[in-house]
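My current task is to audit a protein record that another person submitted. My question to you is simply how this chain folds and whether the C-alpha cells agree. This is what I was given:
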Amino acid sequence: MALQLGEIAPDFTAKTTDGDIRFHDSLGDSWGVLFSHPKDFTPVCTTELGYMAKIKPEFDRRGVKIIGLSVDSTADHERWTADIEETQGARPNYPLIGDDDYTVAKLYGMLPASTSGDAKSRKPADNQTVRNVFVIGPDKKIKLLLVYPMTTGRNFDEVLRVVDSLQLTAQHRVATPVNWRQGEDVIIAGSVPNDEARKIFGDWKEPKPYIRIIPQPV
C-alpha cells in the first residue's frame, strides 16, 4: 500500500553508515527528510548525495535531520561516499541506511512486498521506484511525498522551500501561494473566518473574498 500524506511514517530499525538506529528515536522531536536511491554507484544519485551534503547546514538551521537510503549495504555506501567526495566536492555528512534486505523500501511502499534475493544482483532499473523524498514532521507524520524518475535529479532547494512553508503553516493559520519564498506575503487559511482573522491578523488585501493576503507572520 502506498503511503499517504498525514500518515505516521513507519518506524524501523536499520544499519546506517553512522551505526544502528531506530528511525523515530533518531528523529526525536525534529523534522526529518528521508530520501531514497535505487542503487549505489549511479550517476544521478551521486550528484544528489553530494549536493545534499553541501546544503545540509541549511536543513540544520531549520531543525531538520537528513537521512539517506540506498538498496545496497553500508559497506558499499562507504565505498560510494569516496566517489561522491571526489566527483562532487562534498562527502555525505548524514547517515545512509543500508537496505540490501529491502526492509525499508518495502515498508515505505517503494518496492513490492515480494521483492527478495541478493541486492547486488539487481540493476538500478529493478529498483527504479526507490526514488522518493519524504518530509516528516515532529509528530512523525508524512508532510510531503515526492517521487522522481531515475533520469531526473531532485531539486533539494525546492525541498528547503517546502520545509519553510510547512514550518510556517504549522505555527500560523496561513497558507503559502505559488512559488512562495521566505519573507514574502502569505494567504490567510480558508478555515479562518473573517471575524477571527481580523482578531489574529488585522487588515488584509482582498483581490477576491476568498483570497486574503497578509505579510508573512514573524
Q: What stands out?
A: The chain has a mean pLDDT of 97. The longest helix spans residues 43-61.
